[in-house]
């Protein structure tokens, strides 16, 4: 199922986006109606049945909040239930997928589920290197002649192939990884391909960075909820790698003062971008040329001896991975640029990109 343009805008805001993501169904009447149809109820009997089921549902909702409306003005679903973007309580990916699931009203939203692993919150966080921490964030590389291509929201279905592509060019990327978004499951779940993909990124010289646990809008979260968004991703990274990143990118490019202050305390570099090809909006063979044109306009108007780029892409989109990436990499090398990670283009030694975790396993 394709995400509608409206939902895409709501869910993705400025930078992040989702491709072929199941939409939480518009629920309520639909389910009830199909139940009735299945029982071949007609006429008056049907009206009575509707009333009966409706009353039963209302009573159930008051008691348990398992299938009623939720959200602002309605309240929270029961423990173990999620609150969909459209404001209905339920279970399963239609209801629980983050960031659409309303974490303030759905206790079981993916964004409320903590990964297993050792807690990282008490790891000492000395300032590493000279790249700024917290604050308004970083938009530009500093070393001329370098381009840092970055990918948000993954890893996902295509990320392993993307790594093959980078390998074939001898190129480096930075991955701003989200812990549990678009219904992909937790990145440190051993039953998913993600732990191996993330280890591979590191082994092949790419930089691993955080894009928060479940891609929530930081402006809607309490300080405690936002801290969880950072710490939970650290727990997941640490359980895979034994360390966690010092670089992050705020979902939707939203990070107001409270968010900046938490990230300063937790020792994070806040990274934005100065070249967005909008590949996430052009995920179709007939549209992706627009992203190539945006890339060309930037590169053709620049001077490799004086300029550099901090680019943003999303590896959850097919055309970005299988079409645009080849175009960008061949252009990058053709114009004489060096393909680097974000840390490298900021002149920050690799030893500063991560903090050692408190050990991988609870003992
Ligand atoms: C984030 O939340 C703020 C505060 O509710 C809201 O004004 C803004 O539109 C939201 N942005 C996105 C991308 O959801
Ligand atoms: C769920 O129950 C709470 C507490 O009883 C109530 O405030 C809220 O309105 C209910 N929400 C729904 C979705 O029925
Ligand atoms: C790749 O992009 C071009 C437009 O730049 C398009 O014509 C072509 O069909 C795309 N290839 C695939 C395999 O989708």
TrEMBL record:
Q: Where is the NodB homology domain?
A: 145-340
SUPFAM superfamilies membership? Glycoside hydrolase/deacetylase, Plant lectins/antimicrobial peptides
Q: Which InterPro entries match?
A: Chitin-bd_1 (IPR001002), Chitin-binding_1_CS (IPR018371), Endochitinase-like_sf (IPR036861), Glyco_hydro/deAcase_b/a-brl (IPR011330), NODB_dom (IPR002509)
Could you tell me the superkingdom of the organism this chain comes from?
A: Eukaryota
Can you supply a Gene Ontology BP term from the record?
Answer: carbohydrate metabolic process
Check the record and name the Pfam families matching this protein: Polysacc_deac_1 (PF01522)
- Record key words, sorted: Carbohydrate metabolism, Chitin-binding, Cobalt, Disulfide bond, Hydrolase, Metal-binding, Signal
Give the signal peptide as a residue range, or say none if absent.
Answer: 1-19
Which terms in the Gene Ontology molecular function aspect does this entry carry?
Answer: chitin binding; hydrolase activity, acting on carbon-nitrogen (but not peptide) bonds; metal ion binding
Cofactor(s) in the UniProt record: Co(2+)
**Protein name (Swiss-Prot/TrEMBL):** Chitin deacetylase
């Amino acid at each position: 199922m394709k995400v509608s343009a409206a939902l895409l805008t709501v869910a993705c805001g400025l930078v992040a986006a989702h491709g072929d993501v199941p939409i939480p169904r518009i629920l309520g009447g639909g389910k009830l109606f199909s139940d009735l149809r299945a029982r071949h109820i007609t006429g008056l009997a049907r009206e009575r049945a509707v009333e009966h089921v409706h009353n039963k549902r209302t009573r159930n909702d008051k008691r348990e909040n398992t299938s009623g409306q939720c959200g602002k003005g309605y309240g929270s679903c029961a423990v173990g239930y999620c609150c969909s973007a459209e404001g209905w309580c339920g279970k399963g990916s239609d209801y629980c997928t983050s960031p659409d699931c309303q974490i303030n009203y759905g206790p079981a939203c993916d964004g409320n589920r903590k990964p297993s692993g050792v807690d990282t919150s008490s790891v000492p966080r000395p300032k590493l290197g000279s790249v700024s921490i917290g604050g308004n964030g970083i938009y530009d590389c500093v070393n001329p002649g370098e381009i840092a291509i970055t990918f948000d929201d993954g890893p996902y279905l295509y990320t392993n192939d993307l790594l093959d592509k980078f390998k074939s060019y001898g190129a480096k990327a930075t991955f701003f990884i989200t812990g549990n978004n678009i219904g992909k499951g937790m990145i440190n779940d051993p039953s998913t391909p993600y732990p191996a993909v993330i280890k591979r990124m590191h082994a092949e010289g790419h930089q691993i960075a955080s894009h928060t646990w479940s891609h929530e809008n930081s402006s809607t979260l309490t300080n405690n909820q936002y801290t969880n968004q950072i710490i939970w991703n650290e727990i997941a990274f640490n359980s895979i790698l034994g360390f966690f990143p010092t670089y992050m990118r705020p979902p939707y490019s939203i990070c107001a003062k409270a968010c900046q202050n938490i990230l300063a305390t937790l020792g994070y570099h806040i990274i934005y971008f100065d070249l967005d090809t909008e590949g996430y909006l052009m995920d179709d063979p007939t549209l992706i040329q627009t992203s190539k044109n945006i890339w060309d306009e930037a590169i053709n108007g620049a001077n490799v001896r004086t300029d550099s780029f901090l680019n943003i892409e999303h590896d959850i989109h097919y055309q970005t991975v299988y079409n645009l990436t080849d175009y960008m990499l061949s252009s990058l090398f053709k114009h004489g640029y060096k393909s680097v990670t974000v840390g490298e283009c900021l002149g920050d030694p690799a030893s500063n990109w991560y903090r050692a975790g408190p050990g991988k396993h609870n003992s």
